Amino acid sequence: MMSPDLFDRPAPLVARGLIGARLLIDGVGGRIVETEAYDAVDPASHSYRGQTPRNAPMFGPVGRAYVYRIYGLHWCFNVVCDAASPGSAVLIRALEPIEGVQIMQARRGVAAARDLCSGPGKLCQALAIDGRLNGIALTSPPFDLTAAAGAPNVVQGPRIGVSAGVGTAWRFAEAGSRFLSRAMTEEGA
DNA sequence: CGTAAGATATTCT
DNA sequence: GAATATCTTACGT
Questions:
Q1: Handedness of CA A62, A60, A123, A172 (dihedral sign)
Q2: How far is the CA of A110 from the C1' of C9 (A)?
Q3: What is the number of domains present in chain A?
């Protein structure tokens, strides 16, 4: 289980550090292979225009979940970080499925491992993440978040699906992973 | 392979 | 009314 103070750093550092970490919810999940960082001075962030009912967890304690509905139907899962900069969080975008693959296949309605958790909405469906987990601490059940064993090879690039802040290279991914939401174009890290 | 449309909560104009 | 940190299905090449 990760120590809570590991989340108390700027969002890009936390996002990078989460690559290779193991995320399970009720024993189902895998290795984090793709993340994105957001903070309150970032025009692409939900927290950019201040606190609202939806983004309230981003302004709360570090190490908790920020779960929100996007496009009215999918869920997205974030880790709140950096107490010194309220409104900071890391979006978990893709996992390499490891534990409970059969359960994830049933929840997603697809069989291919690459389609189970290769996107923020997909992994929420695969791990059964929804609004009930919003604001919950990640350091206790049903969450099980373990730091990366080794030092994964991390690449970074521009974030996906944003029209503001496109010049900010705050998307992080494990180099060469087959389980990303989209291939990471060659970029320095 | 590709592009396009539809689902529809929350926020902003 | 329009946009959004998305995904699936349908249809053209």
A1: negative
A2: 14
A3: 1
Q: Which residues touch strand C (CB under 7 A)?
A: A 36, 38, 44-47, 55, 58, 66, 70-71, 73-74, 76, 78, 89, 91, 108, 110, 115, 119-123, 159-164, 181
Asked whether the predicted pLDDT for residue A27 surpasses 50, the reply is yes
Show which positions of strand C are touched by protein (CB under 7 A): 3-8
Give the structural domain span for A15.
4-174
Q: CA-CA distance, A104 to A94, in Å (whole number)? A: 13
Strand B reaches within 7 A of the A151 CB:
no
Q: Is A4 exposed, middle or buried (0-12, 13-18, 19+ CB in 10 A)?
A: middle
pLDDT for A186 equals: 58
Q: Kindly state whether residue A39 falls inside one of the protein's structural domains.
A: yes
Q: Quickly tell me which residue has 């193991």 as its tokens.
A: A22
Distance of C1' in B9 from CA in A76, Å? 13
CATH code for position A41 = 3.10.300.10
**Residue A13 falls inside a structural domain:** yes
| Distance in Å, residue A79 CA to nucleotide C8 C1' | 27
Q: Tens digit of pLDDT for each residue in A129-177?
A: 999 999 999 999 999 999 998 899 999 999 999 999 999 999 999 999 9
Over range A96-115, report the average pLDDT: 97
Is residue A41 domain-resident? yes
